[in-house]
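Researcher: Please predict.
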Amino acid sequence: MAKSKYSLSEKRIKEGRGAGSGADYSPWVRIDEVPSLGRSRHVYSHLTKRIHHLLSALEFAVFLLLDNKPPVTDIREQFHRIRDDTRDISRENNLPYPVNNSVDTVMSSDF
């Protein structure tokens, strides 16, 4: 039986990953899904009323800045991008598109 080309992405979409806002937002990628020896961390925000999944010390620093800025009303980390849009950006800039097991990767932005 053939495995779905987008099984992980489809699973995340069904779970509501990358959707919602404020306390209802769920990041596309969580820190327990990324093998890392780096400085990933869970951080609670009083602004959004939820735990954020930050994958690096730089993301943590940016989060601290955003979390303490009065005009900021929401913070969404690991926000997934539309695959067709990221393919177009890659093609326009003559960059190879990331592939995992022969499947185009869903890209996400840090914030």
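Model: Helices lie at 7-14, 57-67, 83-92.
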